[in-house]
Specification:
This protein has 356 residues and is an alpha+beta fold. The chain contains ten helices and 19 strands. The chain has two domains: 129 residues, Creatinase/prolidase N-terminal domain (Creatine Amidinohydrolase, Chain A, domain 1, 3-Layer(aba) Sandwich), CATH 3.40.350; 214 residues, Creatinase/methionine aminopeptidase superfamily (Creatine Amidinohydrolase, Alpha-Beta Complex). Helix 4 packs across helix 5.
């Protein structure tokens, strides 16, 4: 079996009699089949896979899909719910498993109207499987982080006073595409001066000036997986300044969180390790977000490294550690690494210096 077939087999082992899993999210479909298109669904029974898409993607299905299944084509006269109804009645399916985060209310109501006898059961089996990466996935993420880091080293050499944040972000993104990025994994954050106090301060028309801190947060998507990266730079010698101070605090928080990582501990303890450092330094009120999030086929996925997370860390999880301090009207500092959980602790997949 290839790794996609093994994943399907794992799903089937968790299905009971007369149950089927309805897979909606494109990343989940891709995880189970190898398909990279953005409009497809899967119905998985105890014995069969039905791949449901429209005419735009049938050839792509034939070229990319790594598992055996039946192609079901939808069209204006053969809707998704009509196809589902035929499959469900043909297999005497009584319970349809799905992830409630993935389905629109309108689709749910349509299914209920067309298949009134079906029962729904909420299920996150694919999301839980995706949380544990195999070595192929981790190596893909590692390669993408390397490309991302090349982009940061490029921008360090080419960022200029007087250029806007948007110009600077465009220059960075152009370089990353040349290096092989298929697209950015999210809108590039290039926030300078007081705007660096905005945790998600997307690039604007503000010009970058001397004696300002500039926060870069960006990542790429390539070969189905994302990267994520944050560093700060400063256009002046700042030893002894407040930004030098908070940079050292944030770096200490980052390292404390990394030291806390090991299989078997609650994810919230990683967050608390970072938060406690910042809070003891007097900046707890200015650390306004969670410490991290999973990275994989989506830029934000499980596990969540938050104060209320119930997730217990397991070997193979990959997530960010990204503490920050944000001073309104002045600026902010965030540092971000991507971590893989190994049996003996954290493997840091990011290698760029933290220097300002």
């Amino acid at each position: 079996m290839n790794r996609f077939e093994l994943r399907l087999e794992n799903v089937r082992k968790q299905l009971k009699a007369n149950e089927a899993l309805f897979v909606i999210l494109p990343e989940d479909v891709g995880y189970l089949t190898g398909f990279t298109g953005d409009s497809a669904f899967c119905l998985i029974t105890g014995a069969e896979l039905y791949f449901i898409t429209d005419g735009r993607f049938t050839q792509q299905y034939r070229e990319e899909t790594q598992v055996n299944g039946y192609l079901m084509e939808i069209s204006p006269g053969n809707s998704l719910t009509k196809v589902l109804a035929e499959l469900i009645s043909g297999h005497t399916i009584q319970t349809l498993l799905l992830n409630p985060d993935d389905i629109k209310v309108s689709m749910m109501r349509k299914i209920e109207g067309d298949i009134p006898e079906i029962r729904f059961k909420y299920c996150e089996v694919v999301r839980e499987m995706r949380m544990i990466k195999d070595e192929v996935e981790i190596e893909t993420i590692r390669r993408n982080i390397h490309i991302t880091e090349l982009g940061y080293h490029y921008i360090l050499r080419n960022v200029e006073e007087g250029k806007t944040e948007i110009e600077t972000a465009a220059m960075l993104e152009h370089y990353l595409r040349i290096q092989g990025a298929e697209k950015m994994s999210f809108d590039t954050i290039c926030a300078s001066g007081p705007r660096s106090a905005l945790p998600h301060g997307r690039a604007s028309m503000k010009k970058i000036e001397k004696n300002e801190i500039v926060l870069f947060d960006f990542g790429i998507l390539k070969d189905g997986y994302c990267s994520d990266f944050t560093r700060c730079l400063y256009f002046a010698k700042i030893l002894g300044s407040e930004f030098d101070k908070i940079h050292r605090i944030v770096l200490e928080a980052l390292k404390a969180a990394q030291r806390a990582i090991r299989p078997g501990i609650p994810a919230k303890l990683v967050h608390m390790a970072a938060f406690d450092v910042i809070d003891r330094a007097g900046y707890g009120a200015f650390f306004t977000h969670s410490t991290g999030h999973g990275v994989g086929m989506e830029i934000h996925e499980a596990p969540r490294i938050t104060t209320n997370s119930e997730t217990v860390l397991s070997e193979g999880m990959v997530f960010t550690v990204e503490p920050g301090i944000y001073l309104p009207g002045k600026g902010g500092v965030r540092l971000e690494d991507v971590i893989a959980v190994r049996k003996d602790g954290a493997e840091v997949l990011t290698h760029t210096s933290y220097d300002l």
